[in-house]
Design a protein that fits this description.
Blueprint lengths: L21 H30 L1 H8 L3 H7 L2 H9 L2 H9 L1 H14 L10 H33 L4 H24 L4 H20 L22 H30 L5 H29 L1 H21 L3 H15 L2 H10 L5 H29 L2 H18 L27
Helix pairs in contact: 1-7, 1-8, 1-9, 3-7, 4-7, 4-15, 5-6, 5-7, 6-7, 6-9, 7-15, 8-11, 8-14, 10-11, 10-13, 10-14, 10-15, 10-16, 11-12, 11-13, 12-13, 12-16, 14-15, 15-16
């Protein structure tokens, strides 16, 4: 398989010898846990920021409409910047690129809290989203490379670490908000801690480098056709995820008349279900393959959506949201893995899929609200159910780029240059 930028990957010093060599296996295990830690740090930034949005709104003096406008800028920044990740990795090597991009992402966490008004907040969130998107592409590309070298599925577990990091970040943010801590203090401290943790984690990731004669990827390019097809599957999953996270509590409160506490619990349960399913997902993918896993997941998600739409009470609706989370949990990790194997430029394919999924996450909450405005939330989640069924129909696109083979991969050539730590 091609490396992060389309060339054959170059191993770090010492990664020589046949598969089963103790030194090589130890390095790969360390690299797996290192990139898992990177995923957790990335998720913790997102979780930390999400809890302080109300404080940021009050500090900047924004109306709900102005806040909605500002919150579109992370996705805009990510979509613009993600194609640059491959070029940065080509220039500096995958490890150095990830180290720098992740540090920019963690440091940018404090910028929204320092913004006194709408324009500065939009600029801060654009930078926040741009660094988020580029580090997202870099870490997923390295996760796919670890998966290839290990010879087994690990991407679902890595995304499970992201979910766990987001939960930890949101838990810390909830405590800070409850204590009345100024978000500039909270997010500033979080940025320092997460920057240090991210830098330490990056020390252990693979140092994949492009071949000396490889041309750098273009600064901006349209995603390849294969990435668009795979991204469509990711679009369906992320739409259902974003809709459920943002609207499940509102659905239980407004449609089924539950208390605020029960409504909030439905969102937490959905997020926990997704995290648990992602941790278990690699074993499922190894056993059944990506196509069958996504197809069965699509069936579960469709049943969950139908249960939400027809639920006579809150218990059934919460069960429906749980099924939705279970069904879509592994789709995005598998979409990234498939994108990396779908062409000659993995970083461009990953960036293309990431752009599509970010876009889906951006439009889903407003689309659900718009449909509800002209009809009802029940009809809105009927749309979610239809998109969930799209996973059943589209799962086959993952076949051409299925997860790692059951046989051992051919070892990549050893690097002859000194380590650059």
């Amino acid at each position: 398989m091609a490396g992060v930028n389309g060339a054959d990957p170059v191993n770090e010093p010492g990664n020589v010898g046949p598969r089963g060599d103790g030194v090589k296996d130890d390095r790969l295990r360390r690299a797996r846990w290192a990139v898992a830690a990177v995923f957790a740090v990335h998720g913790a930034v997102t979780g930390s920021f999400a809890t302080r949005v109300p404080w940021i709104q009050d500090h900047a003096g924004l109306t709900a409409g102005q806040l909605g406008l500002a919150l579109a800028f992370p996705a805009i920044g990510a979509s613009v910047a993600m194609p640059l990740a491959g070029r940065i990795s080509h220039r500096f090597g995958a490890r150095n690129a990830l180290r720098g991009l992740l540090a920019l992402w963690t440091a940018s966490l404090v910028l929204p809290a320092l913004s006194p008004g709408l324009l500065t907040l939009c600029a801060a969130l654009f930078c926040y989203g741009a660094t988020a998107g580029m580090s997202d592409v870099a870490m997923n590309a390295l996760g796919v490379e670890v998966e290839r070298r290990l010879g087994r599925s690990v991407m679902s577990g890595l995304h499970g670490m992201w979910s766990a990091g987001a939960l930890l970040g949101s838990a810390a943010g909830t405590l800070a908000a409850t204590a009345g801590t100024d978000a500039r203090v909270h997010l500033g401290l979080a940025a320092v801690v997460l920057t240090v943790l991210g830098t330490l984690a990056c020390q252990g990731v693979l140092d994949v480098r492009s071949a000396p004669d490889e041309h750098p990827p273009p600064r901006f390019t349209l995603p390849p056709r294969s990435a668009l097809v795979i991204g469509a599957v990711g679009f369906c999953a992320v739409f259902a995820e974003a809709a459920s996270l943002d609207w499940s509590a509102v659905y239980l409160r407004d449609v089924l008349g539950t208390s605020a506490g029960v409504a909030a619990a439905s969102t937490t349960a959905f997020a926990c279900t997704m995290a648990v399913a992602r941790f278990a997902g690699d074993a499922v993918v190894e056993r059944f393959g990506p196509v069958r896993t996504v197809r069965v997941g699509g069936v579960l998600a469709t049943l969950g959506g139908a249960l939400v739409v027809t639920a006579p009470g809150p218990v059934a609706a919460m069960g429906g949201f749980a099924l939705l989370g279970l069904g879509i949990a592994v789709v995005v990790p598998l979409a990234f893995a498939a994108a990396a194997r779908s062409g000659t430029a993995p970083s461009q394919s990953i960036a293309g899929v990431a752009t599509i999924t970010y876009t889906s996450g951006l439009i889903a909450p407003s689309a659900i609200g718009s449909v509800a405005e002209v009809s009802s939330l029940t009809v809105s989640f009927g749309l979610v159910t239809l998109l969930a069924f799209g996973l059943v129909l589209g799962a086959g696109v993952l076949r051409s780029a299925s997860t790692t083979p059951k046989t051992a991969p051919v070892p990549a050539p050893a690097d002859t240059t000194p380590a650059r730590d």
